[in-house]
Design goal:
heterodimer; A: 682 residues; Phenylalanyl-tRNA Synthetase, Chain B, domain 1; Phenylalanyl-tRNA Synthetase, Chain B, domain 3; 6-stranded mixed β-sheet; 26% strand; B: 346 residues; alpha+beta; BirA Bifunctional Protein, domain 2; 7-stranded mixed β-sheet; two-stranded antiparallel sheet; elongated
């Protein structure tokens, strides 16, 4: 809201400096956004919060100034003279749509002479940046910016049969507005119509046909209260935002319609002549009387943290327009004014008294009681995850939660149900070369496709060695009645090969729980290469998936080189995490290490070989370490491989003897031979 | 030659040798001194040794013992000088092929996203002030995102065009889920976590919630349809704006690393009354910090608290803005493009 300094002086005596005024206004709720000089006036831009429609006019701001500086407020009392003819003989108003319009008043001025508005009015409107039209239209604008009530002036000769009907728009009804564009109306919008056609879109914009022009002689003045929600949705649908709709959306003062109507008639008579018909048409109903509010003084100290002198309280409320009914040592009872619909409870008055008294008087060094916070396990786990991954050279990415269809469908291991769809798409979040990929309106069920897109962006910019991770929720639809499942996942995308990335996952798991080991099962995810991929398990719990992306996925995501991806469930990791590690006695005796080299079928998996090695070795086996695999078709035949591994034995009680070690080794050899048809080399 | 003279000469030699060795500035000088004193042919110790022949026979044994001890001490002095010099210049020949000025093997430590870094820092500060982190769902129902937060049906914040209302694939036959029942949406503020925590906890409550929030703004340099918020809530007996101001001042001073003035000025939010906007004074001007206020009694009642018995404050800040100011990032979209050259800066 732009306020003119000169204009304000009409209601309050501005003895203070500009800077002092805007500081006080900022600190009492009208944030000063800037001031511009306009000729010999100052245009002060104040931010008005949506609960303070009363400050969308100069009088409202002047009332704040009067309360802050404890100075008188002078509001004009327009009493325009009328002729003997009554408006009711020429005009009628019917409200058919009471939901959209609670109250509608009309006055009629006959025989105006359209011309320029007075100089002083033009100057004030110019200070606000409002265009100058003519003495009638300018007067309606002037009064709107004076008291916050939008007004409309119709060329009465264009109102057929002198009938004003406030009704809902009909289906497929069209309407040509003052801006000479034709708008398609829909039911739910509020229309002002004469006996035949819409002449205005209520509260939003007047019609081209009934606009006041140079030829206008008789003027019908509308002052009405329109429902905020109706106005907002109409203005929004038609993209027709105006100072009028802005004010109606924030609730105008229905009690002030008559004042605004008299005021504008007075100004028009003064500058355009003519005669005002006797009486006013007042359709609909006035607002119900306001209920009084009891403010207990102790509430002020309890919520503001400062004591406010009792003799400051009631006078401040009166300055703000409340009518004090009674007061004693404990409390004050007052009725709020019609223009302050935001005041209904004692806590609302606590704010009023507090902000006029000054929030700057509230101390910032009180004793807040001590309280020990704690860090939830999930937080501590995610911190460890992040430190392992950054140590492993992975950078953290943050990507949008909504994705386009092709990404949504690309990888859905956690969930078979279709994704949740957002009513609104995310706009402007795709890189230029991904623009035509689709609407970004699906809640992602995996983080992997988003990271592949990030990988592509980096490839495109020739950034080398891109290793990224993200921790975020995915959204898994369930029964529509409930809040869907939103588990936290961790995803990785890497330039490194399968085993390098698997090593990172294993190191991560070890960091969280030294005793846990990751098992890999086969999987058949289309995004992943059929052989270089697997489902990851931690004991009985499925941890996630990893693998090199398939050639078709590589193509889909426009990648130039291979990528290995991982997605695991952070909940499972958290569940497995041992935040406090436990000590186990370390044997003081030297170990015995033996290397094995077996020939076996390619089909034999290391995991199963290892489990055979461990199966009967008992507590003396300390570790099994895979060394390498190689193939020599000439010597071993096709489909065979040689697997080298090393086993460490150690006892907690004594140094192992050669005999004990040999016995353990021969058991391993015989078990491997019988379980895997493996042959020991050498 | 008397034994006394012989011993005197030995001691003088020991002193001179020790001085020369300790004064040697590098291995070349030390080597010269070694030749001078310990040289096998013309060394001064060697020449002095020849004088032993002139010592009377019955004193030869004493003289020999003295000679040995001096020899040992000179040798020790040499070795200690040698080790002194080797600790700086090393043993052996300098190999010109080894260029120690070549860069080390590249070792990349991954970077946390600047948003995470900002969140961690804020969470840390709030933790020190006694606020425990709390989590809540990002997909919320209308009740927790609006109703319980005292945002009435007609409030502009509930406009379907201003929210990501959700539906499942089967139910997309044009019916507007936003207007019926208790529809789901992506939360538009982290205040929803307040409600969920208070529904399940009795006062006193002191939490901080952080996370993603969503509003359908078209992405530009200063807007993104997804962003992050931090929200603090403290409910107890007699919690007032003075407590809020005190906590915000500690918070801002801690974050900025210097004591900064904080002011609060009236504002409007449906879920607080009084509502305030908090600013901190930095670089000669007031900078907007975030919205705050005393929890509205309707919110307390919605979660089953008695507003006559307890009161509380809440505040919420946008993480991106703090992060961008801190790191001088000029376009919010950089944060979500994840160009690794961008990420490596932090």
């Amino acid at each position: 809201m732009i306020v003119s300094w000169n204009w304000l002086t009409e209601y309050v005596d501005l003895a203070m400096t500009h800077d002092d005024l805007v500081d006080r206004l900022t600190m009492s709720g009208l944030n000063h956004e800037g001031t511009e000089r306009v000729d010999n006036d100052q245009a002060i831009d104040l931010e008005v919060t949506s609960n303070r429609a009363d400050c969308l006019g100069h009088i409202g701001v002047a009332r704040e100034v009067a309360a802050l500086y404890e100075i008188p407020l002078n509001i004009p009392d327009p009493q325009p003279a009328t002729c003997s003819d009554s408006i009711s003989q020429l005009c009628s108003v019917a409200i058919e749509s009471e939901n959209a319009c609670e109250r509608y008043t009309a006055r009629l001025i006959r025989g105006v002479k359209i011309g320029p508005s007075p100089q002083w009015m033009q100057e004030r409107l110019k200070s606000l940046g409002i265009g100058i039209v003519n003495n009638v239209v300018d007067a309606t604008n002037y009064v709107m910016f004076e008291c916050g009530q939008p007004l409309h002036a119709f060329d009465f000769s264009k109102i057929k049969d002198g009938k004003i009907i406030v009704r809902e728009a009909k289906a497929a009804e069209t309407f040509e507005a003052i801006d000479h564009r034709t708008y398609q109306l829909v039911p739910g919008m509020c229309v002002i119509s004469d006996s035949e056609n819409a002449v205005a879109l209520g509260g939003v914009m007047g019609g081209a046909d009934s606009e006041v022009s140079e030829t206008t002689v008789d003027v019908l003045i509308e002052a009405a209260y329109f429902d905020p929600l109706t106005i907002r949705s109409a203005a929004r649908k038609l993209k027709l935002h105006s100072p009028s709709s802005f004010r109606f959306e924030r609730n105008v003062d229905s009690d002030n319609l008559d004042w605004a109507s008299r005021r504008v008639c007075d100004l028009i008579l003064e500058s355009a002549g003519g005669e005002l018909l006797e009486g006013v048409i007042d359709a609909g109903s006035p607002p119900p009387p306001r209920e009084s509010i009891n403010l207990r003084y102790r509430q002020l100290e309890r919520l503001l943290g400062i004591e406010i002198p009792v003799d400051f309280i009631a006078p401040t409320l009166e300055k703000l327009g409340l009518v004090v009914e009674s007061s004693d040592e404990q409390s004050v009872t007052a009725v709020p004014p019609s223009w302050r619909k935001d005041l209904t409870r004692d806590v609302d008055l606590v704010e009023e008294v507090g902000r006029i008294y000054g929030f700057e008087k509230i101390p910032d060094d009180v004793n807040v009681p001590m309280s020990a916070s704690y860090r939830p396990k999930a937080d501590r786990v995610i911190d460890r995850v992040r430190s392992v991954l950054t140590a492993a050279g992975f950078d953290e990415a943050v990507t949008p939660s909504l994705v386009p269809q092709p990404w949504s469908d690309a990888f859905t291991p956690w969930c078979d149900s279709p994704p949740l769809i957002s009513s609104q798409p995310m706009l402007g979040v795709l890189e230029e070369y991904s623009h035509n990929i689709g609407t970004v309106n699906l809640l992602r069920r995996s983080l992997v496709p988003s990271l592949l897109e990030v990988r592509r962006i980096n490839d495109y910019r020739s950034n080398a060695n891109v290793n990224l991770f993200e921790t975020a929720k995915v959204y898994l639809p369930s029964n529509q009645q409930e809040i869907p499942d939103q588990p936290m996942k961790l995803a990785l995308v890497s330039h490194r090969d399968f085993f390098a990335v698997k090593g990172v996952v294993e190191a991560l798991v070890k960091e969280l729980n030294p005793l846990a080991t990751v098992q890999v099962n086969e999987c058949s995810e289309v995004l992943l290469d059929a052989s270089q991929s697997g489902e990851l398990w931690l004991g009985e719990q499925r941890l996630g998936w990893m693998g090199r992306i398939s050639d078709s996925a590589k193509k889909q995501f426009g990648l130039r080189a291979d990528a290995v991806v991982v997605e695991v469930d952070l909940g499972v990791l958290e569940h497995e995490t041992q935040l406090i590690a436990c000590h186990a006695n370390q044997s003081p005796f030297p170990p015995v290490t033996r290397d094995f080299n077996f020939i076996m079928d390619d089909e034999v998996r290391w995991a199963s070989l290892e489990s055979t090695v461990r199966s009967e070795s008992g507590p003396l086996l300390e570790s099994v370490k895979y060394l390498e695999t190689f193939r020599d078709e000439a010597r071993d035949g096709p489909g065979k491989k040689r697997v080298l591994f090393s086993v460490v034995f150690r006892s907690k009680e004594a140094t192992l003897t050669g005999v004990q070690a040999e016995e353990l080794c021969s058991r391993i050899i015989s078990n491997c031979t019988s379980a895997h048809q493996a042959t020991l080399v050498g | 030659m008397s034994i006394e003279l012989f011993i005197e000469q030995l001691e003088a030699l020991a002193q001179a040798a020790s001085k020369a060795f300790s004064e040697a500035a590098d291995s070349d000088q030390l080597d010269l001194a070694r030749v001078e004193f310990l040289g096998a042919k013309k060394g001064r110790l060697k020449s002095l040794q020849k004088n032993m022949g002139a010592v009377p026979g019955d004193q030869k044994k004493t003289a020999g013992m003295k000679l040995n001890s001096v020899k040992n001490s000179i040798q020790e002095a040499f070795e200690s000088a040698q080790s002194r010099l080797s600790s700086t210049s090393g043993e052996g020949e300098r190999d010109v092929k080894f260029d120690a000025t070549l860069p080390g093997e590249a070792f990349h430590v991954g970077r946390l996203h600047p948003i995470t870094q900002t969140i961690n820092e804020l969470k840390d500060i709030m933790g020190r002030l006694g606020f425990t982190p709390a989590e809540g769902p990002e997909i919320e129902d209308d009740y927790h995102n609006f109703e319980a937060l005292n945002i009435p049906r007609a409030h502009p914040a509930r406009d379907p065009l201003d929210n990501f209302y959700l539906s499942v694939a089967e139910a997309t036959s044009g019916n507007d889920s936003a207007l019926s029942g208790n529809p789901l949406l992506l939360r538009s503020q982290t205040s929803t976590v307040q409600i969920r925590v208070m529904e399940n906890t009795q006062p006193p409550v002191r939490i901080v919630s952080l996370g993603r929030v969503y509003r359908p703004d078209t992405a530009d340099w200063s807007h993104y349809p997804m962003f992050h918020q931090i929200e603090g809530l403290m409910v107890d007996e007699n919690v007032s704006l003075a407590d809020l101001k005190t906590v915000l001042k500690l918070f801002a001073s801690n974050y900025l690393g210097d004591e900064v003035p904080v002011r609060i000025r009236p504002s409007f939010f449906p879920f607080t009354e009084p509502s305030v906007e908090a600013d901190y004074y930095w670089d000669g001007k007031w900078v907007e910090f975030g919205g705050a206020g005393i929890v509205d009694p309707n919110v307390l009642r919605a979660v089953g608290y008695d507003p006559e018995k307890v009161s509380g404050f809440a505040f919420g800040l946008g993480i991106e803005r703090l992060c961008m100011i801190r790191h001088q990032i000029t376009d919010i979209r950089y944060l979500f493009t994840n160009d690794t050259r961008f990420l490596h800066q932090f």
